[in-house]
Amino acid sequence: MKFDKPAATNPIDQLKVVGQPTPRIEGPLKTTGTAPYAYERHDVAPDAAYGWVVVASIANGRIRTMDVVAARRAPGVLTVVTAETAGPIAKARRNTVRLLGGPEIQHYGQVVAMVVAETLEQARAAAALVRVAYDTEAGAYDLEAAKEAAVRPQRITSGAPDTAVGDFAGAFAAAPVQLDATYRTPGHAHAMMEPHATLAVWKGEQLTVWTSNQMVDWGRTDLAEMLAIPKERVRVVSPFVGGGFGGKLFVRAECLLAALGARAAGRPVKVALPRPAMFNNTPHRAATIQRIRIGATRDGRITAIGHESWQGDQAGGRSDGHVSQTRLLYAGANRMTQTRLARLDLPEHNAMRAPGEASGMMALEIAMDEMAEKLGMDPVQFRILNDTQVNPERPERPFSQRQLVECLRQGAERFGWSRRNPSPGQTRSGRWLVGLGMAAAFRGAPVQKSAARVRLEAGPLVVVETDMTDIGTGTYTIIAQTAAETLGVPLHQVRVRLGDSDFPVSAGSGGQWGAASSTSGVYAACMNLRGQVAAKFGFEPAQTAFADGRVSSGGRPLRLPRPPAFRRRMQSSSASSCGRPNSPPSAPTSSRWLSTPTRPRPGSGGCSRCARPAGSSTRSPPAAR
Amino acid sequence: MKAFTYERARTPAEAAAAVARTPGAKFIAGGTNLLDLMKLQIETPRHLIDVNGLNLDEIEKTSDGGLRIGALVRNTDLAADARVRKDYAVLSRALLAGASGQLRNKATTAGNLLQRTRCPYFYDTAQPCNKRQPGSGCSAIGGVSRQLAVIGSSDACIATHPSDMAVAMRVLDATVETVRADGQARRIPIADFHRLPGTTPHIETVLLPGELITAVTLPKPVGGFHTYRKVRDRASYAFALVSVAAIVQKDGRGRAAFGGVAHRPWRVEAAEAAMPSGAKAVADQVFTGAKPTHENAFKLTLAARTLAGALAEARA
Ligand SMILES: Cc1cc2nc3c(=O)[nH]c(=O)nc-3n(C[C@H](O)[C@H](O)[C@H](O)COP(=O)(O)OP(=O)(O)OC[C@H]3O[C@@H](n4cnc5c(N)ncnc54)[C@H](O)[C@@H]3O)c2cc1C
Ligand code: SF4
Question: What angle do CA A533, A534, A540 make, to 5 degrees?
Fold first, then answer.
């Protein structure tokens, strides 16, 4: 199903379940500590050994020698993984640096080895015995110093790195009121509550990782690429993610090393990045330097606006689109934006919470405030005056809907803007100086292809499976709401299973596309299922109503069909890309909503494609109702 | 963490003797600092002597009207003690400005005085650090030094003492009571207890090997308005960039000690005469001879302003 036209009336419009307040269905599992996170999967690998990473203590250079003899001999140690023992490991497409360093070191804190031992304490103690000697090389770490040599990146998130309209330089020079300001933002590090953690299990040639990752299929692809094995031999399971924020969009060192360690030790191995390692071993938001120039008439109309940004990254890295919002937010006939990327030997930069927009909006909106002050104008008024109803870089393109002015007016009204004292430092509340400020902001709403599988079952009635993740966002709940609304069943009769590469490939959680895309995929699958149910009863799909778990077309409502009489897997139209069209039906009897399936053991007679061994029961976290 | 052996001491003198006798032995109280350092192998004791059972957890009146605080009194209990809250409010406030509720439940009076610096290079065992590894050099000089000392530092070390409690103890003229390995007790004024780094930053106090803290005593109450102001990068759960413990009397006279600026709580009694003339006058004298780095020179302004805030609060 393609969503390329305005939505006509559809089942979601009923808003019986969607849009209604409901307790999160996954909430009780989290608050009672029964939601299974990767590092705690004792149920799937009670015999897991522990990995502890060793990180580089130089920022640029080469490993001269690495002495692991003492570590190998230490109590409880099963194996030591290094770049040397692991053999060549390809760099995954989505990473900028290699996840296992050596002999080259690309940044401080790059993982160079991992010790695997019977206990965490033994692994940690032995890791401290690894002796590494380095040849250090000079590196570039200072954006300010590297700025001059920065180059134009090929692209930024929103397209071209540079844009120009009209005569910016001329208009700025001629503007009666000018602002020329440079802003600097520091680097930001990820430190979500659940660290990057993975449990890896090999069964012959087949690898399963229980991991904490926002994008199951990306992770699967990248891990297969690094290990040089077919993607089909990798299964990635990530049903609960304790925070990601972009830092878990891509497979990180602990996941690769868990796989390598488990293979070397011949045992399940689990690894979590220790908190101090996270700061250098996960991607971060790069520091920026941003110059903004605004030229305006004395009555506050912008005639020229320019935004230039500089950030650094490793070779082959990329730049956020700090200037993207400036292209669209305010009017002004003469404009320019420019992005430059410097080469720095710092840990790799990558997506972190509104990458680009967060740093860029900050600079733009401070500049707008400073300009308003120069003009002696109210900052809300200044923004309203410079609103645009067309894309200012391409005036032939009007916005379909843009309500920034209404938004600003309403905000000003509700916050009591008119009662604000515009001179700073005048309003006190006890020990505190109190100020009232404002800023506009927007972010894109991208969508991605997303597949899901929905079927009717004897127990729960509706089962939804997709490799979509829940990163604390309530995905289980919104997907259940979508299915319940579309199929006309009560919410408690929907079971949602997420975060498993055995399920159809979803959009994943990232880029702000997760909720919109994944629920669309579920909606599409449900609509397919409605069509098939209607066909089974010989009803015209458009004339068929689904409500209260029943189907009707003019006459008496009939019960929704259930297995075994009706047993077909229905998939959304985009689900064909998930590659498992012929999967046999699974008929779980004991699984409950939210349950996270375990892998069939070879020889247990289970289904190799779907999630579960025949007749086996799955570990079912206590159902919430 | 390196493997270690463990025993519980029964009397203070026995504990002191045991540490002095056993190579690589250390006391453990709440463990909130020592265990963290052991996990990172910054501290690598081979033997731990647990002092939690020594019955040093009472707060009692002294004959001269002061308070005697047992070495094992938990930070939570000390902060909540009615006598402390009434007569030594600066101490209560300083304690509550530190760490978290859970940590304060474990942290002890002696352990707090002896907690080690939070210099980032001290924590990174891959980096040179004279305090962790004497003679290896100081990475902080010329490195990231925003948190570090602006005064009393040396070419060997520019670390700060991170304790909030100790700053209040300093302004209250507390005395540290100890028992030595030979069984002798002694009393050390808090002003003499912590050392400046000099050429031996790894030696942080005047305690001798095996010397056990048994109590901290406070002289009789001095009255006045008590306050503790702590300025930090996060509003909670962070160490001080600058802190001020101040006691101000009705007539404007008073005393002040500063935290986050030196290798020990920083107080210059001679400067306190300038208190009625305002914070700047005091701070100028307190920080005479300061040697900030380019990253932390702001602390001098910040310290003066924080004291000004405390004085304004006292007047209000
Ligand atoms: C996350 C975190 C945040 C923190 N934030 C703050 C803060 O904001 N402000 C602040 O002031 N503190 C802070 N702290 C530090 C905390 O106050 C100290 O860890 C605590 O006070 C140490 O006391 P303890 O009893 O646990 O000491 P331990 O860890 O048991 O011991 C510390 C040292 O004292 C020695 N020792 C213990 N008892 C005796 C004794 N009786 N005689 C001789 N030597 C002894 C030990 O051998 C060891 O060397 C923080 C700590 C953590 C972990
Ligand atoms: S300031 Fe002191 S603690 Fe920090 S690196 Fe230098 S010597 Fe070590």
Answer: 165
**What is the 3 state secondary structure string of B277-312?**
HCHHHHHHHHCCCCCCCCCCCHHHHHHHHHHHHHHH
Cβ atoms of A71 and A130 closer than 8 Å: yes
Gap from A286 CA to chain B (nearest CA, Å): 18
- Tell me the C-alpha distance between A374 and A376, whole Å: 5
Whether residue B304 contacts residue B292, with contact meaning beta carbons closer than 8 Å, is answered with: no
pLDDT at A6: 83
**CA-to-CA separations, A423 to A179, A292, A433, in angstroms, rounded:** 20, 24, 12
- Which residues have any ligand 1 atom within 6 Å of their CB? B 26-34, 36, 51, 71, 98-99, 103, 106-108, 110-112, 114-115, 162-165, 212-213, 239
Span from the CA of B32 to the centroid of ligand 1 (angstroms): 5
Q: Give the residue from chain B lying closest to A75, CA to CA.
A: B3
Question: Which ipTM was obtained for this model?
Answer: 0.88
Chain B residues in contact with chain A using a Cβ-Cβ cutoff of 8 Å: 1-3, 39, 41, 123-127, 309, 313
- List the structure tokens of A485: 């609304």
Q: What is the pLDDT of residue A582?
A: 31
For the cut 70, the answer to whether the pLDDT of residue A156 exceeds it is: yes
Nearest CB to A125 within list B1, B124, B127: B1
At residue A608, does pLDDT exceed 80?
Answer: no
| DSSP E strands, chain B | 5-8, 25-28, 47-50, 59-61, 67-70, 175-179, 185-189, 212-218, 225-231, 242-248, 254-259
Give every strand in the sheet of A206-211, ordered side by side. Answer: A77-82, A111-117, A49-55, A269-272, A197-203, A206-211, A234-237
Q: A516, A558 in Cβ contact below 8 A?
A: no
pTM: 0.89
pLDDT tens digits for A541-556? 999 999 999 999 998 8
B176 Cβ inside 6 Å of ligand 2: no
- Longest Cα pair distance anywhere in chain A, in angstroms? 82
Ligand 1 centroid, distance to B37 Cα (angstroms): 11
Residue A564 is predicted with a pLDDT of 60
Helices (H), A189-281: 216-227, 253-265, 275-281
CA end-to-end span of chain A: 33
For the segment A567-604, what is each residue's pLDDT rounded down to a tens digit? 444 444 333 222 233 333 332 322 333 433 333 333 33
Distance between CA atoms of residues A380 and A369, nearest Å: 9
Per-residue pLDDT of A441-496, as tens digits, reads: 999 888 999 999 999 998 779 999 999 999 999 999 999 999 999 999 999 999 99
Residue written as token pair 């005047």? B206
Taking the C-alpha atoms of residue B290 and residue A356, their distance in angstroms, rounded to an integer, is 41
Could you give the percent of chain A with pLDDT greater than 70? 90
Identify whether the C-beta of residue A548 lies closer than 8 Å to the C-beta of residue A480: no
pLDDT digits (tens, 9 = 90+) for A350-363: 999 999 999 999 99
Closest CA to A282 of A252, A238, A311, A312: A252
For B110-119, write each residue's pLDDT tens digit: 999 999 999 9
